[in-house]
Amino acid sequence: MNVDLIDHSPIETRVAVVIPSYKVTLHIAEVIAFIPPMVWRIYVIDDACPDGSGKFVEENVVDDRVRVVYHQQNEGVGGAVMTGYQNAIADGVDIIVKVDGDGQMDPGLILNFIWPIMTGEVDYTKGNRFYDLEEIRAMPRVRLFGNAVLSLMSKLSTGYWDLFDPTNGYTAIHADVARHLPFAKISKRYFFETDMLFRLNTLRAVVVDVPMSAKYGEEVSNLKISKIIGEFLFKHVRNLFKRIFYNYYLRDMSLASLELPLGLLLLMFGTGFGGYNWYESAHLNVVTPAGTVMLAALPILMGMQLVLAFLGNDIGSVPRRPRHKAFRARGSWAKGAAK
Question: Rounded to two decimals, what is the model's pTM?
Answer without folding.
Answer: 0.85
